[in-house]
């Protein structure tokens, strides 16, 4: 969440098992006022990153296991570290090392002996990239905070977004969705109702049924939410979920009256977990249902043609697995 601000020196982790290589790289980097942290093997590097994620990593390949490729691979697999730019330092003429580095997800390469000018250029451009990524993350964090503030207006929905995120990712995993769509589901769990920021509180908390006029305003929230998030390219897979999470399989939903598979699958997933979670908590207009009763309502509404029956069946399968619970937190690896 941190950006590289003027007052903060970028932190660069240099990993090499040869002390003289570390000395050389540190000497090059400290000239530019970068803060250099050293690690003498892969294990120490991973521990350093876990403790305080740096802004950039320079990784030697020839180290006792885990070597540089393995460290890079592990960092790129983890959601919380995959956006840290990583430069692999290879020995000249090792084409195979480059190939392995690309496979491990390295962002760039340097060849030994490292030339100062080349090092400066690579480091500078990757730190710039990191700064943009951090800024984007900050904007996303603001949007999520706004969405949580909207959620907090209704005390009965406490924790709804978090559970939704978790359930949606579990259902997405069950349906073998690719990781970028799982990430979109996680974000959509928080952002799907952001557009309710435009709905007066009295309507959100009204204990009785809404008047047709009020219902019209509430039904604008998917469009408003999509409009707020649209400028962020990083949310492009989240936008269809926000816009279409109230469509219905038979075409009777809103805002676009989409039907069947023209409703994005991710929106169909979020919709089902949203309906389920809303049923199992107390709302201003009705008491909570048990999980079993909520599952029954979901099935009845699916029979009416409101939801994708295949996705409902997968969801109920998940609900009945492992002792009948969707354990919150079990999908926490996808952020
Ligand atoms: Fe909604």
Descriptive account of the structure:
By secondary structure, the chain is an alpha/beta fold. It has 2 domains: 11-134, Rossmann fold; 153-324, Hypothetical protein af1432, CATH 1.10.3210.10. Helix content is 51%, strand content 8%. The protein has 14 helices and 5 strands. It has helices spanning 19-30, 42-51, 68-77, 95-104, 116-152, 160-174, 179-191, 201-204, 212-218, 221-229, 239-244, 265-279, 291-303, 309-319, and strands at 11-15, 35-39, 56-60, 86-91, 108-112. A 5-stranded parallel β-sheet has the order 2-1-3-4-5, sandwiched between helices. The longest helix is centred in the middle third of the chain and has 37 residues, at 116-152. The radius of gyration is 24 Å and the shape is elongated. The relative contact order is 0.09. Residues 1-6 and 329-335 have low confidence and may be disordered.
Structural class: alpha/beta
Total number of helices = 14
* CATH architecture classification name of the largest domain: Orthogonal Bundle
Our count of domains comes out at 2
Largest sheet: 5 strands, parallel
List SSEs in N-to-C order: EHEHEHEHEHHHHHHHHHH
**Cross-sheet strand order for the largest sheet:** 2-1-3-4-5
Bound molecules: fe (ii) ion
The proportion of strand residues reads: 5-15%
Poorly predicted segments? 1-6, 329-335
Which value, in Å, is the CA radius of gyration? 24 Å
């Amino acid at each position: 969440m941190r950006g590289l601000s003027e007052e903060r020196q970028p932190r660069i982790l240099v990993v090499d098992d040869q002390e003289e290589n570390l000395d050389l790289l540190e000497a090059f980097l400290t000239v530019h006022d970068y803060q250099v942290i050293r690690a003498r093997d892969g294990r120490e590097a991973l521990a350093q990153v876990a403790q305080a994620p740096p802004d950039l990593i320079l990784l030697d390949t020839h180290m006792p296991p885990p070597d540089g490729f393995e460290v890079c691979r592990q960092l790129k697999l983890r959601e919380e570290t995959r956006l840290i730019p990583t430069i692999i330092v290879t020995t000249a003429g090792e084409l195979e090392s480059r190939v392995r580095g690309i496979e491990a997800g390295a962002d760039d390469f340097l060849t030994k002996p490292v030339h100062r000018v080349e090092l400066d250029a690579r480091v500078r451009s990757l730190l710039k990239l990191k700064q943009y990524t951090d800024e984007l993350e900050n904007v996303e964090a603001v949007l999520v905070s706004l969405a949580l503030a909207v959620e907090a207006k209704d005390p009965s929905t406490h924790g709804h977004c978090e559970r939704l995120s978790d359930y949606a990712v579990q259902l997405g995993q069950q349906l073998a969705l690719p990781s970028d769509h799982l990430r979109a589901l996680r974000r959509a769990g928080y952002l799907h109702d952001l557009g309710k920021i435009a709905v007066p509180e009295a309507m959100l908390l009204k204990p009785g049924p809404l008047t047709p006029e009020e219902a019209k305003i509430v039904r604008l929230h998917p469009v408003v939410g999509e409009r707020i998030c649209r400028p962020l390219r990083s949310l492009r897979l989240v936008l269809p979920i926000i816009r279409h999470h109230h469509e219905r399989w038979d075409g009777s939903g809103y805002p676009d009256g989409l039907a069947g598979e023209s409703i994005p699958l991710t929106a169909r997933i979020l919709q089902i977990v949203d309906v389920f979670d809303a049923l199992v908590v107390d709302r201003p207009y009705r008491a909570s249902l048990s999980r079993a009763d909520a599952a029954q309502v979901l099935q009845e509404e699916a029979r009416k043609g409101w939801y994708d029956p295949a996705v409902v069946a997968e969801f109920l399968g998940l609900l009945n697995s492992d002792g009948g619970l969707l354990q919150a937190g079990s999908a926490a690896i996808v952020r």
